[in-house]
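Q: What would this chain look like folded?
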Amino acid sequence: MIHDDGRLLTQFGGDFYSAGNLQNDAWAHAAYVWDSTANKEFFYINGNYDSEHVPSSAPTWNSAFKIGQYDLINYKYKGLIDNLALYDRALTPEEIALHAGG
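A: My prediction, written as structure tokens:
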């Protein structure tokens, strides 16, 4: 999710906010990485490391996965989403920078 102040937010095992924020009316590359080996989640903004978090519990994927919306009613994303990519492994910081164009 994107919080009102532009920070990225996940809620697996506690709230995890990015340190940086996304600007309104500007394209940005945002990456979320869950590294099950390290038991950490990471945010990258425009190819740069932003922050990391150790959740109190590992994420479980036991419900529908939504892009741009929290649930079927609340917190609808009002922008455009382009070039979505999902991977079955944690990308390295170098791979994220490459995807961001860096």
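Residues 14 and 55 are 6 Å apart (CA to CA).
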